[in-house]
Design goal:
The protein is α/β, with parallel strands linked by helices and about 400 residues long. Helix content is about 45%, strand content about 15%. The termini are far apart. About 45% of the residues are buried.
C-alpha cells in the first residue's frame, strides 16, 4: 500500500490521480489533499477518501469554509506553508505535485528534503528551478517520476537503454486548436476558441499553453533536466492524433516510441506504481483502428514559444523562471479577455528582454517570478494597443 499526498487535487491531473486510486484501492491510499481555492470539490474529495489532512491555498475565507466542512474529520492546513506541511507528513510515501505554476517549487523541495519520492506533473518546477531541484534530489537520493505524458513516454522508453545512449528526444505535440488557422486570425483569437483543444481535456493554463505551444517550450527545458541531455537534443514534432506520446532515437539509430490513447491516467498510474504495471481497466489502444499517424515540423512563426524556451535555457540562471512567470501572467490576463492570444508571446519576449539573469537560488527564482509578473502587468497597462497590433515595430520580434 502506497500512501499519497496529492497537491493540486481539484485540478485535472489531481482528479485523474484520484480516479486511479479508486481503481486500485489495494495498492494506493490518499492521506493528504491540497487545492488552491476549490473548497467544494476539496470537501467532496476529503469525505470520499477519508483523508487525515487537507489544505486550501486560498484566502482566509476559503480556509474558514473548509474548516467548517471537514474540520471534525481532518486537520485543515492553510497557504503555501500548509501545502509544504502536507508534503512532509511522516505517513506520506509519495507526493504528487500537480499544482499549476511556480507555486509547486516550495512543496517539491520540502518533500525532497523529507526523502519523499515525487510524482511530478507541474512542468514549472523544473522549468523555473531545474538546477536547484535536481541538485537537491541527487543529494537526497530522491527519485522524480514524470507524470507529463511526453516525459512519461521518454521515461518508459528509457527502460530499454541507458541515458548515455540517447541521440535525440522527440516531443510530440497535437498542434492545438490553431494548427491550420490563418496566423492573423489565430493572433486575434480569444479564450473561447483557444480552450477548444482537439484531443486532450486539461485545465485553463495548460490548454492555452498547448494553443501557443508554450507547453512544448516548457517540456524542452523539463526534459533536459529530467534526462540529463542538452536542450539541443530535444526536438518538437507535431503529431495531431496524440497517439505517440514521445520518441527516443538511440545511438545505434533505433527509435523507440510509447503509444497510447490520449488519457493522462496511464502516465499517472505508471509514475505511482513504477516499476509495476497492473490492470486498472483503463481503455486500450486498438492498433487495428489506427488509420494513420502523421508528423510535421512546427511552424515557428506561428509558435515562437519553442524558440523563446530555447533562448531562455541557453541564457540560463533565472531566465527560464522569468519566461515561465511572464507566460503564466500573460495567460491569466488573456483568460480574463483583456488581450488577444497573439499578445501572450509578445509579453513574454519583452519581459525576458528586460531581465538581467542571476544565479537560480530559490530566493532569486521567487524574486524573478514576482518581477516578471509585475512587468507583464505594467506592459499591458502601458502598451496594450501596441501589443495588440501584430505589425507594430515596437513589439515585432523574430527568433532564429
Amino acid at each position: 500500500m502506497k500512501r499519497l499526498a496529492i497537491l493540486g487535487s481539484t485540478g485535472s491531473i489531481g482528479c485523474q490521480t484520484l480516479d486511479i486510486v479508486r481503481r486500485l484501492p489495494d495498492r494506493l491510499q490518499v492521506v493528504a489533499l491540497a487545492a488552491n481555492h476549490n473548497v467544494e470539490r476539496l470537501t467532496q474529495q476529503s469525505i470520499e477518501f477519508g483523508v487525515q489532512h487537507v489544505c486550501i491555498g486560498g484566502d482566509r475565507e476559503a480556509f474558514t469554509a473548509l474548516q467548517e466542512r471537514v474540520g471534525r474529520q481532518a486537520v485543515v492546513h492553510h497557504g503555501l506553508d500548509g501545502i509544504c506541511e502536507l508534503a512532509t507528513l511522516p505517513e506520506v510515501d509519495m507526493v504528487v505535485v500537480a499544482v499549476a505554476g511556480a507555486i509547486g517549487i516550495a512543496p517539491t523541495h520540502a518533500a525532497i528534503r523529507a526523502g519523499k519520492p515525487i510524482a511530478l506533473a507541474s512542468k514549472e518546477v523544473l522549468v523555473a528551478a531545474g538546477e536547484p531541484t535536481m541538485k537537491l534530489a541527487l543529494q537526497k537520493n530522491v527519485p522524480i517520476f514524470p507524470i507529463d505524458s511526453e516525459h512519461s513516454a521518454i521515461f518508459q522508453c528509457l527502460q530499454a537503454a541507458h541515458h548515455n545512449a540517447i541521440e535525440r528526444i522527440y516531443l510530440t505535440a497535437s498542434g492545438g486548436p490553431f494548427r491550420q488557422t490563418p496566423l492573423a486570425e489565430m493572433e486575434k483569437a480569444g479564450p473561447a476558441e483557444a480552450l477548444k483543444h482537439p484531443t486532450w481535456n486539461m485545465g485553463g493554463l495548460v490548454t492555452i499553453n498547448s494553443a501557443t505551444l508554450m507547453n512544448k517550450g516548457l517540456e524542452i527545458i523539463e526534459a533536459s533536466w529530467l534526462f540529463g541531455v542538452d536542450s539541443d537534443c530535444v526536438e518538437v514534432v507535431i503529431h495531431p492524433q496524440s497517439i505517440i506520446h514521445s520518441m527516443i532515437r538511440f545511438a545505434d539509430g533505433s527509435v523507440l516510441a510509447q503509444l497510447g490513447l490520449p488519457d493522462m491516467r496511464l502516465p499517472i498510474q505508471y509514475a505511482l506504481l513504477y516499476p509495476d504495471r497492473v490492470d486498472s481497466d483503463l481503455p486500450r489502444l486498438d492498433a487495428a483502428k489506427m488509420i494513420s499517424l502523421t508528423f510535421e515540423p512546427p511552424d515557428l512563426e506561428r509558435f515562437p514559444a519553442v524558440n523563446l524556451a530555447r533562448k531562455a535555457v541557453k541564457i540560463g540562471g533565472t531566465a527560464p523562471a522569468v519566461m515561465n512567470a511572464a507566460n503564466e501572467q500573460a495567460v491569466d490576463i488573456f483568460l480574463s479577455e483583456k488581450i488577444p492570444l497573439g499578445a501572450i508571446m509578445k509579453l513574454v519576449y519583452h519581459t525576458m528582454e528586460r531581465h538581467e539573469p542571476v544565479t537560480p537560488t530559490f530566493e532569486n527564482i521567487m524574486k524573478a517570478d514576482a518581477w516578471a509578473r509585475d512587468q507583464v502587468i505594467k506592459l499591458v497597462a502601458r502598451d496594450r494597443q501596441a501589443i495588440e497590433e501584430p505589425n507594430n515595430a515596437a513589439f515585432r520580434y523574430t527568433l532564429s
